[in-house]
Design goal:
The complex is a heterodimer. Chain A is α/β, with parallel strands linked by helices. Chain A is built from 24 helices and 14 strands. Chain A folds into three domains: 232 residues, no CATH class; 96 residues, no CATH class; 186 residues, no CATH class. Classes of the chains: A alpha/beta, B alpha/beta. At the A-B interface, α5, α6, α7 and α19 of A face α4, α6, β9, β10 and α8 of B.
Chain lengths: 635, 361
């Protein structure tokens, strides 16, 4: 299969069928998310929102990927990845030493819960199904790693089981007999699941507990009597699709029996019970140490740039780095006039604000640095205006208008980001451009980043046909990003149920955020979130677990859906105010910030009560204000 | 309507019929009763309106009201010709923060041979039934009837009725579930770990404005080969071309589909779709057999409900011959109702016999 002209259009990495292409696009820096020591025997849960890179991480450790990597370890684009994995003990000089057993088809396990059979048998069938699938996965992996022929060489494989119960698993058998047992068991259970008629399941095929996790160990897996791996890990992707009892049984089994091999689960936030869902990335499950939050890993902007550069190198147009296509110079001939006008407006407003007060004389006459561009000059003046606004309000409060002021000593650097945002908003000049802001717009989500990068790179490819410059000017970047954001949000909103409530809530939030963000003194910086007290957070969790629609259930459902859809992300237990007072903060997805014309910085939020949030959802506006026209009106 | 009348004129006596329909907001829900009674006015007709309860995504008041009105219309049309029951079908089950769709299995569980044995004819009106539900339900009914035939018992004929209205379909907004899934009873061997290495071939029947569904299905299935199914011939001769144009980026740029993989089926003939799909599936299995096994086949129907019957029949046939293939889809979690029901004025009714005397050898 040839690569598409736009390599960003390649399916996201787990859907790429070629292992080699997958490896070439894999960013090795995400391996830093793995704990350093002894991870191969540990129970790990990799959690993130959709698009957080869970599946890619697990796929990397599949036998076929490890073999391809070993074969191509000397190539420039894979050398670093190989080296990192070797340091983790995945490779020795003669090849891969990790057996990664990747279990797919997880949704089918939960189908067992739907069968009309006694409850106790459901769990026994689940245990058997897990055993059978681990056995099949292990055999497939060993055949690949040892370079055997499937299925002719299965008899050369042996798995020496530890003493103890093994259910229906044929102990002491070779690989062929183990496979026959596993396929037979799987097929019997599967036939019951997919049968039109009432399932007839032989109770004997069910297992009291999961045996394969404890039976397998690196030293128990042999080919021709020799050990072939040093580590073994079972990986279950989309484990959130397991039934709740099944998840609980699996976790309890591993935590109580402590098998000699690792178990890695990949979970989306929606898999968690409601308390965890709202808890976000700062929750640490004491029984599972540590839970690995991949979303926090993507906070490093460099990771996005690495991922983009890997794709860019597959493109036919000769671009070497993604940053090359993102122009950062504002066209002075086009915008300098607007900047000069904005600078003059700032001067005028500051004069009016100071009301001729002596204490501002020095501040107002502070000289500008030499050689500033018109844009820089306007930003500096806008920064000073914010400082003056703050100081004059403080003076009014203290009724001490002629007292000395500290403003002369203040640097404008703290308020510069807001000044830039204000300037861009006022002059209609580009704000959302450049690698840094593109990474911010990704909201810690690699799929979101790739989606935006696709649109930008598509334009570059089109230009290469017409021999235009392949560098996108800031205004072009902003135009393309706005279009992409709009498309993405329409798609998200189309797919959510209770769409009017979503739309109304977002509309009200937008109004609130703009109102707070655009205050002339920018008291809270960029307000792109809201907070609720931990007590209110717990009320929402309780409301979710009831079918009673009174109280705040509807709001709780909506906020939970927002978190699942990655419309908001939550940070819990943030200390603020009185001693002991903690808050949960909900930050808006940065792509929505673009749609709502908000800055992209984190840290700005205002507290809200549940009653206020309820009103947002029901009225679609902040109480006491008029309707505003917003970009995501209902179609 | 005339063709329906002509069919029933030559069909013989319908002694006692069962109509299975959804108790839904879709104005087409009443068409089946109207047409059946229009063709056979004195037909003894018992009716089961499947009442789909979704506690997790409850329908809004407007949808609820429309459902109540449609149910009342059906009752008044029947006016003593037979019983009207409304079996409750739980559509979803919550597991923590995850909502699981269970409606298809719950609906199918309602039916046994005893449910349909008293009737000479069973009509399933799929106009107001969700896709995932009616595919499983019809599959179950076909299986009940086939097993009865094997036991030598007399069985009713099975008909599927659907009123197609592209205008109304465009107005009804589906709010999709986030994840694709395999249809109950038609999960093929997709989740069998033993066949995890087999290549997957996907046959999506394309319809308009299904980008989100297609992307989710592709992500879910992760096929190695894609054979898009396009409507040709169709009422609008350009329809297939327009679909290719609309999905060009996805098909050619992202998925690298070869145009030689396209399959063309008659837009208004589900039996033609069935034949084409069966032929293509057999061809793929034959071609891939020398490579050390076969392949896993997945169908998806993103086009009309009418054409989806072709996919259902193909999947059912392979399941019954122990070569199961899967049907994958993205269920709608909820719907929005058009403001005016006048938009379904262009609705065209179709009645298909899918089991019965016509198929007896």
């Amino acid at each position: 299969m040839r690569s598409p002209d736009n390599p960003f259009r390649l399916p996201h990495s787990e859907a790429i069928t070629s292992d080699l292409t997958f490896l070439r696009l894999f960013g090795p820096s995400i391996l830093e998310a793995l704990p350093d020591q002894d991870q191969w025997r540990q129970f790990r849960i990799f959690r993130s929102a959709a698009g957080g890179g869970k599946t890619s991480l697990l796929r990397l450790f599949s036998p076929s990927c490890l073999l391809r990597l070993y074969e191509n370890r000397g190539t420039d684009d894979l050398r670093e990845l190989f080296k990192k994995l070797k340091n983790l003990g995945v490779f020795e000089d003669d090849g891969p030493k990790l057996l990664g057993i990747f279990l797919s088809g997880v949704a089918s396990y939960s189908s067992i819960e739907d069968l009309s059979i006694v409850e106790s048998l459901k769990l026994r069938l689940f245990n058997s199904m897990v055993d059978a699938r681990i056995a099949i996965g292990a055999l497939i992996g060993v055949v690949e790693l040892a370079g055997l022929k499937w299925p002719d060489d299965l008899h050369r494989i042996s798995i020496e089981f530890s003493p103890g119960s093994s259910g229906t698993i044929p102990i002491g058998s070779d690989g062929k007999q183990l496979l026959d047992w596993a396929q037979g068991t799987e097929l019997k259970i599967w036939s019951a699941i997919d049968s039109f008629s009432s399932p007839h399941v032989q109770a004997e095929i069910g297992h009291e507990s999961i045996h394969m996790l404890n039976a397998l160990s690196p030293s128990s897996i042999k080919v021709d009597g020799k050990e072939i791996v040093n580590h073994c890990v079972v990986m279950i992707d989309e484990s959130w699709r397991l039934g709740q009892r099944q998840q609980q049984a699996l976790k309890t089994h591993v935590l109580t029996t402590r098998p000699a091999i690792g178990l890695w689960l990949a979970e989306r936030f929606e898999a968690l019970d409601d308390k965890e869902l709202f808890a976000g990335s700062n929750l640490i499950d004491r029984n599972v140490n540590p839970v690995v939050y991949l979303d926090s890993f993507w906070r490093n902007r460099k990771v996005f740039e690495d991922a983009a550069n890997k794709r860019v190198r597959l493109a036919p147009n000769g671009t070497t780095t993604f940053a090359d296509i993102l122009g950062t110079a504002i066209d002075s001939s086009k915008y300098d006039h607007a900047f000069a006008r904005a600078a003059q407006s700032s001067r005028n407003r500051m004069q009016a604000l100071s009301k001729g007060a002596l204490k501002y004389k020095t501040f107002l006459s502070r000289p500008l640095e030499a050689d500033l561009s018109k844009r820089e000059e306007a930003i500096e003046l806008r920064s000073r205006e914010i400082l003056l606004e703050r100081d004059s309000r403080k003076s009014q409060l203290s009724f001490d208008l002629d007292a000395g002021s500290e403003i002369d000593e203040k640097s404008t650097s703290d308020v510069r980001p807001m000044a830039e945002f204000f300037l861009c908003s006022e002059t209609g000049t580009p704000y959302y451009y450049g690698m840094e802001r593109l990474s911010d717009l990704a909201s810690h989500n690699v799929h979101q980043f790739m989606f935006l990068a696709t649109e930008l790179f598509e334009e570059v490819l089109s230009r290469s046909v017409t021999s235009e410059s392949q560098v996108l000017q800031p205004q072009d970047q902003e135009r393309l990003l706005r279009r992409a954001a709009s498309d993405k949000l329409s798609e998200t909103l189309r797919s959510v149920s209770r769409r009017p409530a979503f739309r109304d809530f977002l509309r009200a939030f937008s109004e609130f955020a703009k109102m707070e963000t655009t205050k002339p003194n920018a008291p809270y910086g960029a307000v792109t979130g809201f907070s609720i007290t931990t007590e209110d957070h717990e009320r929402l969790v309780r409301a979710r677990s009831t079918r009673d629609s009174s109280g705040h259930k509807e709001l709780a459902d909506l906020l939970a859906a927002c978190l699942v859809q990655n419309i908001f992300s939550a940070v819990t237990d943030r200390k603020q105010g009185k001693v002991g007072k903690t808050w949960t903060i909900f930050y808006l997805n940065r792509l929505l910030c673009l749609e709502m014309n908000l800055p992209l910085a984190y840290g700005g939020y205002r507290s809200k009560t549940l009653t206020e949030l309820d009103k947002w959802m029901r009225l679609g506006r902040v109480t006491g204000t008029e309707d505003q026209e917003l970009p995501y009106e209902d179609e | 309507m005339e063709e329906c009348q002509s069919f029933f004129d030559g069909y013989g006596e319908v002694r006692r019929a069962l109509l299975i329909s959804g108790r839904g907001f879709d104005p087409r829900m009443t068409f089946g009763v109207k047409i059946l009674l229009g063709c056979v006015p004195k037909m003894p007709l018992d009716t089961m309106l499947l009442s789909m309860n979704d506690f997790e995504s409850p329908a809004d008041k407007r949808l609820q009201k429309a459902s109540d009105e449609n149910a009342a219309t059906v009752r008044s049309l029947l006016n003593g010709l037979g019983s009207v029951t409304e079996p409750q079908v739980a559509m979803s089950r919550r597991e923590g923060a995850v909502v699981k769709r269970i409606g298809a299995r719950k609906a199918a569980d309602i039916f046994t041979f005893d449910t349909v044995a008293p009737y000479t004819d069973v009509f399933v009106d799929i106009s107001a039934l969700p896709r995932g539900l009616y595919i499983s339900l019809i599959g179950k009914l076909l299986n009940i009837l086939d097993e009865a035939a094997l036991r030598g018992e007399k069985k009713p004929s099975l008909f599927v009725f659907v009123a197609e209205s592209s205008t109304l379909d465009m107005h009804i907004r589906e709010h999709l579930e986030e994840h694709a899934e395999y249809v109950t009873f038609f999960q093929g061997m997709m989740a069998i770990e033993g066949g995890a290495q087999l290549p997957k071939v996907w046959f999506p029947t394309l319809g308009e404005r299904q980008h989100a569904q297609l992307s989710r299905l592709h992500e879910f299935i992760a096929p190695q080969e894609i054979c898009p199914v396009l409507p040709m011939p169709s009422r609008s001769p350009r329809r297939a071309d327009n679909l290719i144009r609309d999905y060009a980026t996805l098909l050619f740029e992202t998925w690298q589909v070869s145009p030689s993989n396209f399959i063309y089926v008659a837009e208004q003939n589900p039996f033609e779709a069935y034949r084409q799909l069966v032929k293509a599936v057999r061809q793929y299995r034959l071609a891939l057999a020398p490579l050390g096994g076969s392949c896993k086949i997945v169908l998806s129907t993103l086009s009309s409900k009418l054409l989806s019957i072709g996919s259902l029949l193909a999947a059912y046939e392979f399941k019954m011959t122990d070569e199961p293939i899967a049907i994958a889809h993205v269920e709608a979690a909820s719907y929005s109702l058009p403001k005016s029901s006048e938009v379904c004025e262009d609705a065209v009714p179709y009645l298909m016999m899918i089991s019965g005397d016509a198929y007896e050898i």
